[in-house]
Amino acid sequence: MRSAQESYIQEHHKSKSVRELARDLKISRKKVQEIIDTLGQSPKSVSRGTAPEAAAPALPFKKHLWIVLGILAFTFLIYARTLGYPFINWDDPRYIVDNIDIRTLNLHHLQRFFSTPYVGVYAPLTMVSFALDYQLFHFHAWGYHASNTLLHLASTAMVYGIVLSLAGEWLVALGVALIFGIHPVQPESVVWISQRKNVLSFFFFLVAFSCHIRARRAADPKASRSAAIASVIAFILACLAKPLSVMLPPILMAYDYCYGYWSRKTPLKYAPHLIVSLTLGLISIAIAHDATHGGSIGGSRWTTFLTVMVAMMKYIQLMFVPVHQSILYPFPLYRSLLHPHVLLSAGGLAAGAWGIFYLWNKDRGLFFWAVWYLILLFPVLNIIPLLDYMQDRWLYLPLVGIFTILLTLIVRQAGRGMCAVAIAVLTVFFSLANLNRQQVWANPEALWLETRKVSKEYWSSPYYNLGHYYVKNGELDKAIPEFERTIERFNHPGAWGALGTVYLKKGMLDKAVPYFQKALELAPEEAAFYNELGLIYKEQKKYAEAIELYDKAISLEPDRPANYNNKAVAYAMLGKTEKAEEAFRKSLEVDPDFEETLVNYAGFLFKTGRLEESESCARKLIRLFPGSQHRPMMEKILEKVTQAKSSAGEASSVS
Question: CA 428, CA 435: separation in Å to the nearest integer?
Fold first, then answer.
C-alpha cells in the first residue's frame, strides 16, 4: 500500500499540492509530507495548469554550506569599508551619541526601554542592542557598524535557506540571497547605524517564518509544536525590534494557503501570532503621533491614493534601476488622475495586478512571493499617514519576493545557464551601485550634500544638519550660509539658535544675542537656547545672569548634562567651588561619559589640588574619546599631575 502511495506522490508531487495529494490518497497531509521527505523531494507549491520545470538536483549539505559562506564572504567584502564610517548626525545622536539611557544597562534603563518610544518608534529590543554595544564599544562607531553588518549577513543566510526551501532551486536561492545582500537600497539599513531596528527586526522575522515552515513540514507532532513555539518567540522579538514586523501573520497565512497547509482548523493556529501582532501594533499606533504628520498626504485621501500609486511604481524602478537615491525623497503630490506619472503608474499597476492574478491561477508558489512583496510594503503606503512617502529601507525585505519570481521564471523559460548569466550581471551592477551609494554615508557632509542635491529645497534637514556638521568641525564660515538658507526657506527656530552659536564661537557676542532672542520667540520652551544664551553672559563675565539662564534650561530639560556642566563652570568662575562641585557631579550623574563635563571637571579637580581624581577623569576622556579635540589639554594635565607627584615624592624623600 505504501509503495502505491509513494508512486502516486512521485508522479504528481510537482503538479499537486500536499493537500490535494492527501485528499486523493485519503491520508493525512503530514503523512504525505513524510513520504515526500523520504523520497527526497521538496514540497511542491500548488501549481495549477502547466507544471514547472523540474527542480535542480539536490546538493549535499556541505555544498549548500560552501555556497552560503561564499555569499556571506562576498557581501562582507562589499560592506567592509563602512566599518570605518563615523556616526551620522541624523538620528544617531538621539539613539546613541547623546542618549544617556544606553550608558548603563540596568533594570531602571531596561524598564525605560520597554516603556518609552525613541524617535517616535517603540523598539525596546533595538535600544537594548544599542546599550549592549555601548558597553563594548562606547563611542567607537565601528563596533555599531559591525553589529549591523553581522545581522545583515545572518539575514542573508536566512534568505538563502528560505528561498531554497520554497523554490526548490539552489541557483535561484543563491541569486536572491546575493542580490538581497548587496542591492544598493540596502546601505540605508546596514550602514546607517540608527537603522539597527530594520536589520534586527527582519532577522527575527525571517527566523519566525523559517520556524513556521518547519512546524508545518515536521512529521513529528512534538517537533512541529517546538518549531511553532520558536516561531512565536522569534516573532515577539521581531516586533520588539521594530513594529513593522507585525505583518508576519498575513505572510504565514499566505504560505499555508499557497503551499497546501490551509484547512478549516488552520486559522486557530495563528492565534498566538495574531495576539502578538495586535498587541504590539496597538502600542505602535498609540505613539504614532510622534512619527506621523497627523493627516493625509496633501490633505485628502484621493491625493494620497494617487501619490502612493506613483510611489509603488517608483519602488519597482528602484529595485531594477537604482538611480537618484536619497535619504529624503522630494516626492511630489499628485492630485489629478490625468497626470502623466499617474497614468503610467496606473497602467503599470494594472499590468502587475494581471500578473498576480495569472500566478494565482497558474503557480501558487510564485503567487506567494508576489503576496510577500505586497504585504511587507503595505504598512508604509501611507494608510496611516507618515512623514515620508518612500524610503530605500522599506524595500529591505520586500525585494526578496520580486527577485525570487524573476529568477525562477528565467530558470524555467531560459534554463539555468541563462539564469547564472543574469545573476552574474545583476551582481556586478548592484555591487558597483552599492559601493557608489556607500560613499554617501562616509560622513555627514557627503550625506547632506548629496541629499540637498537630490531633494533641492523640499526639506530643511539637509541645510540644517550640514550646518551643524560644519559647526562641529570648526568650519564656522561654511555653516553660516546653510543656516541662513534654512531660515530664509523654512524659518527654522533651530537655525536661528544655530546662527547665534556660530557668532558666539566667533566671539561676536553682540551679533549672537538677537539670533537667540529670535529663536526663543519662535520656540520659548527650547532649553538649548537658554543654555547657549547663558554662554554669552558667561563670556561677558555676567556669571550670575548666566546661572539663571542655566537654571531655566535645567527646568525645561533636566536630563541634559550640558546644562549642569555650564552651570558648574560659572560657579567655578565665581569661586564657589562647592556649588561647582555639586553641579559637575550632577552632570556626571545624568551622563557619566559626557565629554565636555569630563574636560572641565578634570581641569577643576587639578586646580583644586585633587590630582588623583583629575588624573582619573583625564584618562577616562582619552579612553572614551581618543580623537577628541580636548585630548592635548588632557595630556597636559596628566603630564602636570605626574610632575606634581614626582615633586611630592622627592620632597618626601628629602624630609
Answer: 11
Return d(Cα 465, Cα 90) in angstroms, integer. 8
CB atoms within 10 A of CB 432: 13
Q: How far is CA 345 from CA 340, 380, 407, in A?
A: 8, 18, 24
Residue 386 neighbours by CB distance under 10 Å: 18
Q: Which residues pair with 118 in a beta bridge?
A: 121
Helix (H, G, I), strand (E, B) or coil at 557: coil
pLDDT in tens, 324-377: 899 998 878 888 888 999 999 999 999 999 999 999 988 999 999 999 999 999
DSSP 278: H
Pick from 599, 595, 591, 619: which is nearest to 103 by CA? 591
Is 88 in contact with 193 (CB distance < 8 Å)? yes
Cell of 425: 550581471
SS3 655: coil
Contact in structure between 220 and 195 (CB atoms under 8 Å): no
Nearest to 242 by CA among 151, 309, 162: 151
Among candidate residues 594, 568, 590, 600, the one with its CA nearest the CA of residue 581:
568
Q: What is the pLDDT of residues 192-226, one digit of tens each?
A: 999 999 999 999 999 999 999 999 988 888 999 99
In tens, the pLDDT along 519-578 reads 999 999 999 999 999 999 999 999 999 999 999 999 999 999 999 999 999 999 999 999
Checking phi first, is residue 325 left (phi over 0); if not, alpha (psi -120 to 50) or beta? beta
User: Could you report how far apart the first and last alpha carbons of the chain are, in Å?
Assistant: 105
Cβ count within 10 A of residue 451: 25
**Domain chopping of the chain, boundaries:** 2-39, 61-440, 593-655
Answer whether 441's CB lies under 8 Å from 85's CB. yes
CA distance 190 to 180: 12
Q: Count Cβ atoms below 10 Å from residue 120 Cβ, excluding itself.
A: 13
Residue 121: beta bridge partners?
Answer: 118
- Among candidate residues 101, 168, 152, the one with its CA nearest the CA of residue 130: 101
Q: Amino acid letter at 22?
A: A
**CB-based contact 247:379 (threshold 8 Å):** yes
CB 181 within 8 A of CB 156: yes
Contact between residue 403 and residue 176 where contact means Cβ atoms under 8 Å apart: yes
- Taking the C-alpha atoms of residue 655 and residue 650, their distance in angstroms, rounded to an integer, is 9
Return the C-alpha cell found at 495. 537655525
Own/partner pairs, 261-266, CB within 8 angstroms, 24+ separation: 261/18, 261/19, 261/29, 261/216, 262/19, 263/19
User: How far apart are alpha carbons 189 and 86 in whole angstroms?
Assistant: 15
